[in-house]
Predict the 3D structure of the following.
Amino acid sequence: MYDVIIVGAGAAGLTAALYTGRKNLKTLVVSVDVGGQCNLTSSIENYPGIEKMPGFQLTREMEKQVKKAGVEVITGKVIKVEKKSAGFVVKTKSKEFEGKTVILAIGRVPRTLDIPGEADYLGKGVHTCTTCDAPLYGKKTVAVIGGGNSAVDGALEISRVGAEKVYLIHRRVDFRADEMTLEKAKKDKKVEIMTPYSPVEIKGDKFVKSIVLKNNETNEGKELKVDGVFLEIGSIVNTSLVKDLVEINESNEIVVDTRGRTSQEGVFAAGDATTVIYKQCIIAAGEGAKAALEAYNYLTGGKGLGFDWAKK
Ligand SMILES: Cc1cc2nc3c(=O)[nH]c(=O)nc-3n(C[C@H](O)[C@H](O)[C@H](O)COP(=O)(O)OP(=O)(O)OC[C@H]3O[C@@H](n4cnc5c(N)ncnc54)[C@H](O)[C@@H]3O)c2cc1C
């Protein structure tokens, strides 16, 4: 019986593991991969204390620290977490683990277009996080795909950080983004709005060179020379493993309170999979630390949090 089973080894899960390990709690991390979405960015430049580092290197450092704290990290996809009379059972296809508490840190997966070239150029010109990667495109030409606020805001941000030209490409004529944001994009001389176009292929050599579009009214094809493509078409959380265990909101996120507690006592959650806004590595890490301390607090009957600098 583990004290804590953490599902997911992204920034949230690894930080939670560091904290529970250092509290001498018997901890198991079960995850499909180690690093999660942070691995997808070639350069993290907004994680304090680290000026610039490839995402996978940052998560390798986290993993080293977690293992040094005595935590067991194994590869596996959790298909179900169930409540038992005492604690919880965490199931993969071939194994079952029992834990007194569970921390869910399952993150999100960016929604993709599923078109030729997209997967080949992920991280080599195809990006799914504008806030993170826009600064790489100073004086360059990029395409932003999507019709919501994040796409329109994204196009404005890329223009603001110095891109030469930004195509904002949406499959419909009407945008879901709010009017004010859209007005700003229409007034921005570097942003060209292209509707109703759907991307059909991304081409390049080592890096992206162009994007092929289809006009959804006329079927006419078009190829635009671009240095980068930003997908701002949302992301998804797969909460099927806990849908009968914890409250999930309409966006399929795990509902947590400000202490990382879910609706199920003994189950905590952190990071991008939760209702906490702003999906960033540092935020996921901080929320992971909170969930871990809360699990410790739960396991010690509320005696655990006696930091003298944080007396209640
Ligand atoms: C391309 C890209 C670039 C980004 N760049 C930056 C940046 O520069 N700076 C920044 O601060 N943020 C950046 N972000 C956002 C940041 O990566 C996320 O906010 C952060 O990774 C969230 O961490 P997390 O641990 O909550 O989730 P994730 O990183 O998504 O990790 C979830 C983990 O859970 C595992 N998992 C999921 N389901 C299961 C299951 N059923 N069983 C077992 N394991 C499971 C996954 O394999 C993964 O390891 C970027 C995001 C993307 C997509």
In short: The mean pLDDT is 94. Residues 7-13, 30-33, 36-38, 40-41, 44, 46, 77-78, 105-108, 110, 127-129, 132, 241, 271-272, 279-282, 284 surround flavin-adenine dinucleotide (CB under 6 Å). The chain has two domains: 2-108+237-310, 126-231. The helical segments are 11-22, 55-68, 130-133, 149-160, 179-187, 281-299.
